[in-house]
Design brief:
Shape: elongated
């Protein structure tokens, strides 16, 4: 029998952010002056990679899950701030998902 994972909210939020950041990456790659957008792309990629690591550690309830949650919260907060500067619906969606992830990560950190 599989027991309920105490990190389920973070796992679900990470999946949502991975999806939203991948949309942002795809949209950014279609814009002009792509070379000027490399730092933006890297921020989105950092967020995806951090979420994937956090998701993996939390899925197996690793001893490093809380530490990963701390890093994930920091990266999600940074990504949300970046998205707030982009006046596009896809960025707004990513911002909202990153804010949610930040909040659920903070819950794990405070526990």
């Amino acid at each position: 029998m599989i027991t309920q994972n105490p990190y389920r909210a973070v796992i679900d939020a990470c999946n949502e952010v991975i999806e939203a950041c991948n949309v942002c990456i795809s949209q950014t790659l279609q814009q002009e002056d792509l070379y000027k957008r490399i730092p933006i792309l890297n921020q989105f990629r950092d967020c995806v990679d951090t979420c994937m690591l956090t998701l993996s550690l939390m899925t197996r309830q690793s001893h490093y899950a809380v530490e990963a949650s701390s890093l994930c919260a920091a990266v999600a907060s940074s990504c949300a701030k970046l998205c707030a500067q982009i006046d596009e619906p896809y960025a707004f969606e990513c911002e909202e998902r990153c804010k949610k992830l930040y909040t659920v990560c903070q819950t794990i950190i405070a526990a």
